[in-house]
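Sharing a chain and its predicted structure for anyone who wants a worked example. Both blocks are below, sequence first, tokens second.
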Amino acid sequence: MGSVMIGLGICVGNVVAPGYIKTSFPNNIGLMTGIFAVAMNLTAAFASGFSLRLGNGLALDGEVPGCLGSVGDRIDYCCFFDQLRGQKNVIPEQKKQVQTGIGHIFKSRLAWYISIFMGIQSLVYYSLISWLPKVLVDYGMAAKDTGWLLFLIQIAMIPIMFVGPIIAHRMKDQRLMAVAVAVGMLGSILIFFLYKLDGIYVAAILLGLSNGLSFSLSILFFFLRAKSTANAIKISGMAQSVGYLIAAFGPPIFGKLHEIDPSWNYSFYFLAASIVLLLLTGIKAAENKFVEES
């Protein structure tokens, strides 16, 4: 039950945050998208890395992660209610915007392009994060060293997550960035596939850069392809629901293909095909258009 409640809270927060940014920071969407993306990943990394160590050090076992989450919740609540006090004058306007339904979003091709782009970039990331340690061990790397490679991927993601949306927001459209994401991902996959451990650190950095950019670009699309806050929230809701549903199939398919082909070749073919679809949908999602209002 606790896991369900946490999941629902994360879901609501992720969906409504883009609408809040579009309303409160209309002139700094690129900057705030970068801060939002970096904050999500950086705080999650710190929580994962320190919670168990704190628990062991304080002899609290599994209680510390819950305590840290509780402290984080209190901070969230304080920030949220503080913003509510400053937003009283805009509530009537927001009510007018959200009176329309969400059904029209699912009829929009552009919204589907954004959702599929969001899903495939997450699929590639989750597949590799889940299985890359096993792949590297099969390639001959010591198991204790695989964690450092995942750490390198995470570190490489952070700068581009911050800078990428700022640059993308100033562009007429983001098709060039969508191409760069696909090329970077495909390049990293090819290095893993062709050179194995010989080019492993180059592949890790390239993967981190391309996936960091793809994640922040996905979030930026929620703002740039909506004229209103209400539509930004609806696009966010659809893209994250459909996107993470797509992404959930990545790790099991990647692993199942390894059962068919122990060399991991089929698994990497699967990711390469997914990245081609990512490129096609990314180019469409990056066009300078808007999802129509209902």
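Comments welcome. Confidence is low (pLDDT under 50) at residues 61-81, 88-99.
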